[in-house]
Amino acid sequence: MWATAFYIMENYHVDLKDLEFPSKILQFAVTTASGNEESVSTAVYLAILKGLERLLLTDVLSQQDSEVIMKLGVDRLCLPSPQRSLAALGLVFTCMYSGKQYDQYSPLPRDTSKNSSAYNFDAVYQDPESLILAMERVTVLFDRIKKGYPYEARVITRVLPTFLADFFPPQDIMNKVIGEFISSQQPYPKLVAQVVFQVFSNLHDQQQTLLVQDWVMLSLSNFTQRTPISLAVWSLTCFFISASTNRWLRSLFPHVVNRMGKMEVVDTRLFCVAAMSFYNQLTDDAQLRAFVSTFQMVISLGAPYTQLLELLSDSKK
After folding, report:
1. Rounded to whole angstroms, what are the CA distances from 257 to 43, 87, 150, 179, 183?
2. Distance, CA of 75 to CA of 137 (rounded, Å)
3. With contact defined as beta carbons under 8 Å apart, do 67 and 102 qualify?
């Protein structure tokens, strides 16, 4: 029944535009999909969401209809069932990328080469209220990562960096991404570390390396004070490698991510190498001094910080 209804709406929308049929079907679809899991089977739920996606992609819905569907998708993201929540994730992304939601956001061009100039974000994002609404949806996604099953978190973190790069100015996403990475409530720090790495990679590609460096310096003290020391060192190593433009160092990232919780000699060496690489990238004297000062303030917390400061001291001789 649902397949037939959506087929009619998709292919005969011109003939139906003056009738109540499309609005009634859409209202019934949203009401049904909003029902609890006991009253609506998974098969019916998935059929409705897939049908709504088709209508969005074929551009047969009004702006108001698309807004209703977006709200449905965001609401259904909170369902306990992974199968249902991931289907809702697909619906939300379809709404965003089809450009039909109320915010009227449009994805950034994906064919920009790595050597081209940075995006003119001011020209793309002109409505602060729309940006706030969109950022609320990002918060919902990060909340789902925290509350979801491991494979849900893997799916979301896999697509999240590209989504963020397509829709948001970097200055509006950095605080959120970094904050989630160092959150003590984050059950999947390895996955969020990969999000940080990819977000930074996207910014490097957009010639926003200086912005990355600024955010690393702003966040540095929060990382150094994490406990236990093994977690702080691991987080900092991932952070510095993500911020690095050295491709050889960046190639170590998958190995470093899997070293979480370990505090062996190799981990200290990796930390020092990554930290020195980042330090050598800095060109601003104030940032160079701030970098050293940050680790001097936590020198008593562990040997890795002491070794790093010794290396920094030797490099100045």
Report:
1. 38, 29, 16, 18, 16
2. 10
3. yes
Q: How many CB atoms lie within 10 A of CB 299?
A: 13
Give CA 51 to chain center in angstroms. 27
Residue carrying the six token digits 């109320």? 102
* Residue entry with tokens 């990238």: 281
d(CA 293, CA 290): 5
Number of helical H runs and strand E runs in the chain: 18, 0
What is the signed CA dihedral for 287, 288, 289, 294, rounded to 10 degrees? 80
Give which of 249, 159, 170 is closest to 202, Cα–Cα: 170
- Report which of 314, 313, 271, 276 is spatially closest to residue 296, judged by C-alpha positions: 313
C-alpha distances (whole Å) from 19 to each of 25, 59, 116, 151 are 11, 18, 49, 43
Q: Does the pTM exceed 0.85?
A: yes
Tokens 């109540």, located at residue? 20
Copy the structure tokens of residue 178.
């970094």
| Cα 263–Cα 158–Cα 81 angle in degrees, nearest 5 | 105
pLDDT tens track for 132-185: 888 888 999 999 999 999 999 999 999 999 999 888 888 888 999 999 999 999
Confidence of residue 317 (pLDDT cuts 50, 70, 90): low
DSSP state of 109: P
When the pLDDT of each residue in the chain is averaged and rounded to a whole number, the result is: 88
Lookup: tokens for 164: 């963020």
**In this structure, are residues 236 and 271 in contact, taking their beta carbons and an 8 Å threshold?**
yes
Q: What are the tens digits of pLDDT across the range 49-87?
A: 999 999 999 988 888 899 999 999 999 999 999 999 999
Q: Which residue has the tokens 């977690």?
A: 231
